[in-house]
Design brief:
By secondary structure, this protein is of the alpha+beta class. It contains 27 helices and 35 strands. Strands 1, 3, 9, 10, 11, 13, 14 and 35 form an 8-stranded antiparallel β-sheet that branches. Strand 15 and strand 16 form a beta hairpin. The relative contact order is 0.13. The N terminus is likely disordered.
Length: 967
C-alpha cells in the first residue's frame, strides 16, 4: 500500500534545514582556529648549548646574529650550529645551520647548501642570518650581502657553539605549530548550528512521513537468547585472551600522545602530521585511555562494538534476509558472526567501527525500502558519512545505497518531495561528517598533512589490490593465517550461492531483493578496498558484519532443504568447498608479536593430525566424495532411477558449518590454552588478570633489564687463550672480547649456578660478518670432554646478543674460532657472561617518560610516551624498542620518513640494555635504550602566545629531507 506524500510545508522546512547543514559543513573547514606561536630565544651572557629538536624539523623563521669580535675571538671552529657536526654513527644526520669561522672568513651552510663565504672586515661589525619560507639572507651591519630565494630553512636539533663567550651571539626562531591548533568559539558555533539543524531536519522529515506507527526494532528484541549468551561469552574470552593486531601499538602511541601534542598526530612518522580527516575515533580512544591505558581496558571498545554489531545483525539484518528462519539459523548466525569478528576486529584498529557503521547504513537503506520513507535513508547516509570519517575504508558504508539504488529511487519518487529538497536533505547527512573530520584542524593544515603523507608514501596504488589476496594466501605470513582465510574465502563462495539462490527461486525461504542487495553490498565493499592506501588483509574486518550475514544466507541457500532436487548445485558446492577448504587448512594459526610467543596449536605449520597435513586430505577427500556421488547418480540414471543426491551425501551447508566451527574453536581454544599454561609469564590473559588485581603495567612487570653487561662477565678458569683480547661494542658499552680471525679458542669460563640450572642463559654479543664455512661458536663442557657446540651467527655491524642455554652437565664454556680468510667487516664477539638483572619497573618506574616504539607501545601502558609539545620533541632519557632483529621502528628516527624523533636522535648516544622475560629467558622480548647526550645540553623554554588564524591560511610547506626539494 503506497504511503501518502508528506505535507508540503514540512518538506520545505526540511530542505531549508538541510541547506543550513550544508552551509555549515562548507564553512567549517575555513573557520578560524587558535594556533600557539612558540618563539625560542637563545644567546647572551651565560648561554650554553641547548637541546631544541624541532618537529617539523624546520622553523617557520630563524634569525641568528653574531658580532665580528665574537667570530675573531673564536679563531677557528663553529660559531653557531643547529645540528651536531658528528652525531652518533647510527643516527641519520640532519642538515641544519652551520656558521663556521675559517681563515678569517665566515662560512655559512644551511639545509645542506653552502652560501658564499663572508670575509670578516676589520673593526666592529655584526653578521646576521635570516631564513624563512620565501628567502634566506646573510646581512653585514644590516645590509644584505648574500641572498637566496626559496626555502633554505635549516633543520634544528639544538643550538650549539664552540665560542668561549656567548655574550655577542643570538639566535631566535619560531617553531612550526600549524598542526597544534584548537577550536575557536566561532568554529564551535558553526558545528553546533549544523548539528542542531541536522537533528531538526531529521525530526521534521520523520514527522512529515508519520502516517502510522512503525516498530523500530522487532518485538522482544531485548530478551537475550542462548545464541546471544554464547556470542557474549566467546567475545568475553576473546577480550582477555585473544591476539593483538600489528597496529595496536602504533595506535596506542598516537592516542596516548594526544594530550602532549594537543592534536591526534602520527607520532611515529610523517612529521607528526595530524590523522585528520580520519581521526575522530582516536579522540574517543584518548578519552577512554584517561581511565586506564591497560591492554584489557583499551580493547574493551572493540568488544562492545562487536556486541552492537551482533545485535544489529541478529535483530535487524537476519529477520530481513530470512524472515521464516527456524531456531537453528540463530545458532548458525552466531557461528558466522564469530568466524568474521574474532580474527579481524579485536584491538584498536578502525575495523570494528567501520563494521558497525556499514551495518547501520544497510539497516537504514532496507528500512527506507521496506517502509518507503526518506528518513531512514537520510540516517543511513549520515551513518555512511560518519563511517567514512573513520578511515578511507569506511567509504564502503555507501555500498548499501548503491546496491539498493533502484528501489531507493522508487521510494524517493513517491516521497512527494521535489528534486531540490531531496538533494538538500540527502546531502546534509553525509556532509555533517565534516564536523568530525576537521574538528580542531584548519583546512590548510589538513591539506599539508595530506601532502606530507602522500609524499613520504607507505601506500600502494589501486591496481595493486591483488596483493591483499596474495597475502591472504601466503602460508607463512600472519596476514594469511588460517582464521583470516576462512571467513573471506567462504563468504566469497556464499555470495555466489546467495545470488544463485535468487535464480533458483529459493525465495520461499530467502527473499530475492534483500538477498541480492546484501550480496552486492559485500562485493562492492571488496571493490571499494582498492581505494585504501594499504593492502593489508586486516582491512577485511571492515566487512565483518555484512560478511557474517552474507555467509549465513549463503549457507542457508546450500542447505539440504534449499538444494532438494538440485544435484548440479549440490555437487558444485561440495567441489568448491573441497578447494576452498583446502586453502583454509593450508594456513597457519599465526598471529602478531606477543600473541605468537608460546607455540599456539599449528602456529608454525598448517594443521597436521598424526603427521598428515589436513589440507591435501580435505582436498582429495572432497573431490573423491564428489566423484563417488557422480558415479552413484550416473548408475541410478542408467537404470531409470531418480537423479536426487544420495542421502549419505552431506550438504555444502553442513560441510561449511563443520569447517567454520573447527576454525572458531581452534582460535579460541588455542589462545585460552596457552594463556592458562603460561599464566606465570606474559600473555594477554595474564595481563588481563594482573590488571584486574590492580597491576596494570603489562609486559613491563614480566621483564628484567641487564643494566650493566660488564657486571656479569664470567670468571676465567686457569689456562691459556689462543685468541688475543679485543674490546667489543655491546651496544653503547665496551666489553672485553675477541676478533674472529685465524684458528683458536679462548680460555674456559666457569658457568654461573643460574646458568648450570638453565634459569639464565649464557650471553655473547656478536657483530660483523662470517663467510660460509667460517666458525664462531660457544663450546660447553663439564668435567671432561666438550658436550655441545653452539654456533654464534653475527648479522652485520649492529651488535646483537646470542642467548644459549647450557646443556645438562655443563660447568664451563669457551669461544671457538676457525676463520681462514679475512673479510671487510670481521666478526667480533664479547666474552661470555651471565645477565645480572634488575626488574624493569625499578629501572623505569611507572610514569617514566620514554619513547615507546610502535611495536611495543600497546603492552607498556604504565610508561609515559615522550611528549611532542609546541612544534618540538623532548629529549627523553629512555627508549623502549622491539626485539633487536625487528627494525620496523626505525621510521621514527629517519628524516626521510618524517620521523618525529630524528632530530633528537642526533644529539645522543644510545646505550642498549637487553631485557629478559620471566619464564623464557632466551626470548628477546624488547630492548631498553638509555639516551645519553653526546654533550651536556640545557632545555629550551619558549615564549608562547596564542593567535587566531583563518582555516585557509598557509604558512609555507613543511619539508621532508630527501624528498622535498631545497630552495
Amino acid at each position: 500500500m503506497p504511503v501518502a506524500p508528506p505535507r508540503r510545508r514540512p518538506g520545505v522546512l526540511a530542505a531549508l534545514l538541510g541547506l543550513v547543514v550544508l552551509a555549515c559543513a562548507v564553512a567549517f573547514p575555513f573557520a578560524p582556529v587558535v594556533q600557539p606561536e612558540a618563539r625560542y630565544d637563545w644567546g647572551g651572557p651565560g648561554a650554553v648549548p641547548t637541546a631544541l629538536p624541532l618537529m617539523p624539523y624546520q622553523p617557520v623563521s630563524l634569525t641568528a646574529a653574531a658580532t665580528c669580535d665574537a667570530a675573531r675571538a673564536l679563531g677557528e671552529g663553529t660559531l653557531l650550529a643547529t645540528t651536531p657536526a658528528a652525531p652518533d654513527p647510527r643516527a641519520t644526520p640532519l642538515d641544519g645551520l652551520r656558521m663556521e669561522v675559517a681563515a678569517g672568513s665566515l662560512r655559512v651552510t644551511t639545509a645542506g647548501v653552502e652560501l658564499d663565504p663572508l670575509p670578516l672586515p676589520a673593526g666592529g661589525c655584526t653578521v646576521e642570518f635570516r631564513s624563512d619560507t620565501t628567502a634566506t639572507t646573510l646581512l653585514l651591519n644590516g645590509a644584505p650581502v648574500v641572498s637566496r630565494p626559496g626555502d633554505l630553512r635549516p633543520g634544528v636539533a639544538a643550538v650549539l657553539t664552540d665560542a668561549p663567550d656567548t655574550s655577542d651571539l643570538r639566535l631566535q626562531l619560531t617553531a612550526d605549530t600549524r598542526f597544534q591548533t584548537s577550536i575557536t568559539p566561532l568554529k564551535a558555533a558553526i558545528a553546533v548550528v549544523g548539528a542542531l539543524a541536522l537533528v531538526a531536519m531529521v525530526v521534521v522529515l520523520a514527522r512529515g512521513e508519520r502516517r502510522r506507527a512503525v516498530r523500530v526494532l522487532p518485538r522482544r528484541w531485548w530478551r537475550p537468547r542462548l545464541p546471544d549468551l554464547t556470542v557474549t561469552a566467546v567475545l568475553a574470552v576473546w577480550w582477555v585472551s585473544g591476539p593483538v593486531t600489528v597496529d595496536d601499538g602504533y595506535i596506542a602511541g598516537i592516542v596516548r600522545d594526544r594530550g602532549s601534542s594537543g592534536f591526534v598526530g602520527n607520532v611515529y612518522r610523517w612529521l607528526n602530521a595530524p590523522e585528520a580527516p580520519f581521526s575522530w575515533f582516536y579522540d574517543l580512544y584518548y578519552a577512554w585511555s584517561q581511565v586506564s591505558a591497560s591492554t584489557a581496558w583499551m580493547r574493551l571498545p572493540s568488544i562492545l562494538l562487536g556486541l552492537v554489531t551482533w545485535g544489529l545483525v541478529s535483530r535487524c539484518v537476519v529477520p530481513r534476509l530470512l524472515p521464516r528462519a527456524g531456531r537453528g539459523v540463530a545458532w548458525l548466525s552466531a557461528l558466522t558472526f564469530l568466524a568474521w569478528w574474532l580474527p579481524y576486529t579485536l584491538g584498536l584498529r578502525p575495523e570494528p567501527w567501520v563494521a558497525v557503521g556499514t551495518v547501520l547504513a544497510l539497516v537504514g537503506v532496507e528500512r527506507a525500502i521496506a517502509l518507503r520513507r526518506v528518513t531512514p535513508l537520510v540516517l543511513a547516509l549520515l551513518a555512511a558519512g560518519v563511517t567514512t570519517a573513520v578511515t578511507p575504508g569506511g567509504l564502503m558504508a555507501f555500498a548499501p545505497v548503491v546496491a539498493g539504488l533502484v528501489p531507493v529511487l522508487r521510494t524517493l519518487r513517491r516521497s512527494g518531495l521535489g528534486p531540490v529538497p531531496l538533494v538538500l536533505v540527502l546531502l546534509a547527512g553525509p556532509a555533517a561528517a565534516v564536523f568530525l573530520m576537521v574538528s580542531d584542524q584548519s583546512l590548510a593544515a589538513m591539506l599539508e598533512a595530506t601532502r606530507v603523507r602522500t609524499l613520504i608514501g607507505g601506500g600502494q596504488p589501486w591496481y595493486d589490490e591483488y596483493n591483499r589476496y596474495a597475502l591472504l594466501l601466503t602460508q607463512d605470513d600472519l596476514q594469511g593465517s588460517l582464521g583470516k582465510r576462512a571467513p573471506v574465502l567462504l563468504t566469497l563462495l556464499a555470495a555466489v550461492a546467495a545470488l544463485c539462490s535468487v535464480l533458483w527461486a529459493a525465495g520461499r525461504r530467502i527473499p530475492p531483493g534483500p538477498t541480492r542487495r546484501i550480496a552486492v553490498v559485500f562485493l562492492l565493499g571488496l571493490a571499494s578496498m582498492t581505494a585504501t592506501p594499504t593492502k593489508w588483509t586486516q582491512h577485511f574486518g571492515d566487512l565483518a558484519g555484512i560478511g557474517a550475514a552474507v555467509l549465513l544466507v549463503g549457507i542457508v541457500a546450500v542447505g539440504r532443504r534449499a538444494l532438494a532436487g538440485r544435484t548440479g548445485p549440490w555437487l558444485a558446492g561440495l567441489g568448491a568447498l573441497a578447494v576452498v577448504g583446502s586453502l583454509v587448512l593450508a594456513g597457519q594459526n599465526v598471529w602478531p608479536f606477543v600473541s605468537n610467543w608460546w607455540g599456539l596449536t599449528w602456529s608454525t605449520l598448517p594443521p597436521v593430525v598424526a603427521g598428515v597435513e589436513l589440507a591435501p586430505v580435505w582436498l582429495v577427500a572432497g573431490l573423491v566424495l564428489v566423484a563417488v556421488a557422480l558415479l552413484v547418480l550416473a548408475w541410478r540414471r542408467s537404470g531409470g532411477g531418480t537423479g536426487r543426491p544420495p542421502r549419505w551425501l552431506p550438504s555444502p551447508a553442513a560441510v561449511t558449518t563443520v569447517l567454520l566451527t573447527a576454525v572458531v574453536l581452534l582460535q579460541v581454544g588455542s589462545f585460552a590454552r596457552t594463556g592458562w599454561q603460561h599464566r606465570d609469564s606474559y600473555t594477554l590473559l595474564s595481563d588481563a588478570v594482573s590488571t584486574a588485581r590492580g597491576a596494570p603495567c603489562g609486559l613491563q612487570e614480566r621483564l628484567s633489564v641487564e643494566t650493566d653487561p660488564a657486571a656479569g662477565l664470567l670468571p676465567a678458569l686457569p689456562g691459556p687463550s689462543a685468541l688475543p683480547p679485543e674490546p667489543v661494542d655491546a651496544g653503547g658499552t665496551e666489553l672485553p672480547g675477541i676478533r674472529a680471525a685465524g684458528t683458536g679458542d679462548t680460555a674456559w669460563f666457569a658457568l654461573d649456578p643460574a646458568q648450570r640450572s638453565r634459569e639464565l642463559p649464557v650471553v655473547v654479543t656478536v657483530a660483523g660478518v662470517l663467510r660460509p664455512g667460517d666458525t664462531l661458536a660457544a663450546e660447553f663442557a663439564g668435567d671432561g670432554e666438550p658436550l655441545e657446540r653452539a654456533a654464534l651467527k653475527p648479522d652485520g655491524e649492529v651488535p646483537q646478543d646470542v642467548r644459549l642455554l647450557a646443556p645438562d652437565g655443563a660447568t664451563r664454556v669457551r669461544l671457538v674460532v676457525d676463520v681462514r680468510e679475512p673479510v671487510d667487516i670481521p666478526a667480533v664477539a664479547t666474552l661470555p657472561r651471565v645477565p645480572r638483572l634488575t626488574p624493569m619497573d625499578e629501572v623505569l618506574p611507572a610514569g617514566t617518560e620514554a619513547i615507546l616504539d610502535w611495536p611495543v607501545a600497546f603492552v607498556l601502558p604504565c610508561l609515559t610516551p615522550a611528549p611532542l609539545p609546541l612544534g618540538t620533541t623532548v629529549l627523553p632519557q629512555w627508549r623502549v624498542a622491539p626485539p633487536q632483529r625487528d627494525d620496523s621502528a626505525g621510521i621514527t628516527y629517519a628524516p626521510n620518513y618524517g620521523g618525529p624523533f630524528a632530530a633528537a636522535r642526533t644529539l645522543v648516544i644510545e646505550q642498549r640494555m637487553a631485557t629478559y622475560l620471566a619464564g623464557d629467558p632466551t626470548r628477546d622480548a624488547a630492548q631498553v635504550y638509555r639516551w645519553v647526550p653526546a654533550r651536556p645540553l640545557a632545555v629550551a623554554t619558549p615564549q608562547v602566545t596564542d593567535r587566531t588564524v583563518g582555516g585557509w591560511v598557509h604558512t609555507g610547506r613543511t619539508r621532508v629531507p630527501g624528498l622535498d626539494p631545497v630552495g
